[in-house]
Amino acid sequence: MAAIKEYRFDARLTEEQKTLIQRAADLEGRTMTDFVLHSAEVAAQRTLEERAMLVLTARESEAFVEVLMDPAPPSRGLVKAAKRYKRVMGLE
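User: That's the sequence. What structure does it adopt?
Assistant: C-alpha cells below.
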C-alpha cells in the first residue's frame, strides 16, 4: 500500500469568522478542520465543473450554432418514434 502524504494548510481568521465556522461545524457534528476542508473541497469541485462547462461551451459554440441553424433531417427511427408517441398520447 502506498504511503499517504498529508499536507498542512494554515489560515488566519478573525474572531467572527472562527465563531461562525465553529458554530456551523458544531451543527454538522464535524470538527472545525473537517468542516473547512469539506466546504473548500465542495466549492473547488463546483468551480472546476463550472469552468469546464464554460470552456467546453466556448470551444464548441460555433459548431453548436451551425447545427442549430442547419439541423440534419430526422432519421427514419426518430420519425417512427414520434408517430408512435403521438398515437399513444392521442395527439394524432
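The helical segments are 15-28, 32-69, 76-89.
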